[in-house]
């Protein structure tokens, strides 16, 4: 006769995408991973749809991917030209060809331009790229930031951001270790 595990009163089953991964030493980590999956997909969906809403005939073509939106915002950051390697480093993108492909598409759309600086190529946002980012920011304020008002204080959001950066460090270290197996 087998005995089913009994959940004590007040306890809850972890909400996970892969129960077999939650059976190990840290079911809570499996919960975090499922939350990251959902948050990651929702964030990418948001970026694509916000970009579509921010696009206009004189600003940007519709159909930018989440990666292209991220790269464009990174290029616009502080309104200074960026090197390809710096863009990849900031966004933690391992495959430079993904950045190169996105930059080609953004260049064809007229949102970024490249210039030579010695042996290096620098990317800068064009006027149309900066206008697109401004429209994206205005839509973000109206639809997303306003929805957060009153739900979490700014300090809690900053703490959450720090936790996510810490988690990324643990996952990057584990990825490096796994590459040696």
From TrEMBL:
It holds the Pfam family HTH_27. SUPFAM superfamilies: Winged helix' DNA-binding domain (SSF46785). Gene3D superfamilies: Winged helix-like DNA-binding domain superfamily/Winged helix DNA-binding domain. InterPro entries: HTH_MarR-typ, Trans_reg_MarR_HTH, WH-like_DNA-bd_sf, WH_DNA-bd_sf. Residues 64-129 form the HTH marR-type domain. GO terms for molecular function: DNA-binding transcription factor activity. This is MarR family transcriptional regulator. It comes from Acidicaldus sp. The lineage of its organism: Bacteria, Pseudomonadati, Pseudomonadota, Alphaproteobacteria, Acetobacterales.
């Amino acid at each position: 006769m087998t005995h089913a595990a009994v959940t004590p009163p007040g306890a809850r089953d972890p909400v996970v995408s892969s129960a077999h991964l939650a059976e190990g030493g840290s079911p809570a980590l499996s919960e975090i991973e499922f939350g990251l999956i959902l948050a990651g997909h929702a964030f990418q969906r948001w970026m694509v749809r916000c970009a579509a809403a921010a696009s206009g005939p004189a600003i940007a073509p519709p159909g930018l991917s989440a990666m292209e939106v991220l790269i464009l915002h990174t290029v616009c950051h502080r309104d200074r030209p960026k090197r390809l390697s710096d863009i990849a480093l900031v966004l933690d993108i391992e495959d430079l060809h993904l950045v190169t492909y996105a930059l080609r598409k953004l260049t064809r759309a007229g949102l970024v331009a490249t210039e030579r600086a010695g042996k290096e190529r620098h990317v800068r946002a064009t006027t149309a790229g900066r206008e697109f980012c401004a429209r994206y920011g205005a839509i973000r304020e109206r639809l997303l930031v306003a929805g957060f008002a009153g739900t979490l204080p700014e300090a809690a959001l900053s703490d959450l951001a720090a936790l996510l950066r810490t988690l990324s460090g643990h996952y990057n270290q584990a990825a490096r270790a796994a590459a040696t197996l």
